[in-house]
Amino acid sequence: MRRALAALLLALPVAAQPAEPSGHDRLARDLYRELVEIRTVHPDGDNTAAARAMARRLLEAGFDAKDVEVVEPAPRKGNLVARLRGTGELRPLLLLAHIDVVEAKAEDWSDGLDPFRLIEKDGYYYGRGTLDDKAMAAIFVASLVRLRAEGFRPKRDIVVALTADEEGGTHNGVAWLLRHRRELVDAEFALNEGGAGTLRDGKPWIHGVQVGEKMYLSFDLEATHPGGHSSVPTRDNAIYDLAAALSGVARLELPARVGYVTRAHFARLANIESGELAEAIAAVAAGRADDAQLRRVSAEPRYNAQLRTTCVATKLEGGHAENALPQRAKAVVNCRLLPGEDPDFVLRELQRAAGERVRVKARGAPRASEATDARSPVMRTIERVSESMWPGVPVVPLMSAGATDGSRLRNAGIPTYGVSGLFLEHGEVRIHGRDERLAVKSFVEGTEFLHRLVKALAAGE
Ligand SMILES: [Zn+2]
């Protein structure tokens, strides 16, 4: 009795602290900390330091120096490529994660947090990159170390690439490696960011796997006028012209195009949504939605983004003096095009919506976006491993509304699956924003999931 009490008292202060992970989980967490605490922000952050830190860990774990290479196309823009050699029966598996992050300022974050320190608080890891994308980077390196320690002999090489400038900057690591060192990263297929699980009320709900992504293209809208003194106004006015044009753009709805991925995605969603919305989603998945049902689904922004190309005004400027008629008014409209959508069609639709008094011009051309086959054997393996971790939680193929390096790999002929096994609370968007975080439990489960998945895929399952 007394011993039990003593044990309880001893246990109390420990229980109040976060549990210290052991073994493999601790390695993954330590790598995660090391990566988050190296500032890799464009332009002055140091990707090379992060790549070298992970290289050092692999060398310490016994990897041969010829299988661990840091390539640095420009100062501070280093990339790590590391390889666990297989028997060569099958072509390699590439595990891709970017190590650069979006800028974050400590004063914008909540008290007690620092974007460039990994802080564990209330069951979460906080820090810039905890989600995007240093969790996967740390997990992949830890997995490589673990597989080697287990003496695992894969049927294919497992290649980990940690790359620079995914978020911005002119030295995108994936583009550079594909162009200059293709043999280093060449693979039968790849795993990358872009997928995640969704929690509802803290419970796993769906497990999303990204198999395609939309194309990014912005347009400039510009209205011009000779100008004059503001004390003698004219009826026509560049700011009014632009405002009218933007009202037209606000009402523009591009046509819904329901491709295979959207169909498969909606077929799964129909089972987990409820009521009218579920019926409407099922009708879209089956290709028999009427106008009312299409409107019902389109009313949900996240579903609307899957259904059609979207365009939205994101920047505005106009006029040069308070007491002058504006000579110029400009806006930027950012569009996310469905794979296969014709950019000229979008331009024509925008021009039509904006009217004749405003000129619409595309800012460059979008990067093409192939889709990965969501019916492939790799997808079946993802489903099987996911089921072993989260029984009954459906794996749902996704098209990302945002852009990742996955499209670069797909365009280069390497089918890419955005799959992480990291689960986030429904509706929580902190990526690129303040107080970025990932639940400790999710990190631990994601570590185990990706390890099992990599092992299965590398064994040719
Ligand atoms: Zn990212």
Describe the structure.
This protein has 461 residues and is of the alpha/beta class. It has three domains: 20-212 and 369-458, Zn peptidases (Aminopeptidase, 3-Layer(aba) Sandwich), CATH 3.40.630.10; 215-255 and 309-368, Alpha-Beta Plaits; 257-307, no CATH class. 38% of the residues lie in helices and 22% in strands. It has helices at 2-16, 23-36, 47-60, 134-149, 173-180, 182-185, 238-251, 260-272, 275-286, 291-298, 301-307, 343-354, 377-389, 406-411, 440-458; strands at residues 68-71, 79-84, 93-98, 119-121, 124-126, 158-163, 189-192, 196-200, 203-213, 215-224, 228-229, 310-318, 324-325, 328-337, 359-362, 395-400, 416-418, 423-425, 437-439. The chain has a six-stranded mixed beta sheet with strand order 1-2-6-3-7-17. Strands 16-9-8-18 form a four-stranded mixed beta sheet. A four-stranded antiparallel beta sheet has the order 12-14-10-15, covered by helices on one side. It is globular, with a radius of gyration of 25 Å. Residues 1-16 have low confidence and may be disordered. Bound molecules: zinc ion (ZN). Zinc ion (ZN) binds at residues 98, 132-133, 166, 193.
- Major sheet description: 6 strands, mixed
Under CATH, the homologous superfamily of the largest domain reads Zn peptidases
Count of domains: 3
Which CATH top level class of the largest domain fits? Alpha Beta
* Beginning-to-end CA distance, first to last residue: 53 Å
Kindly provide the radius of gyration, computed on alpha-carbon positions and rounded to a whole number of angstroms: 25 Å
Strand line-up of the largest beta sheet: 1-2-6-3-7-17
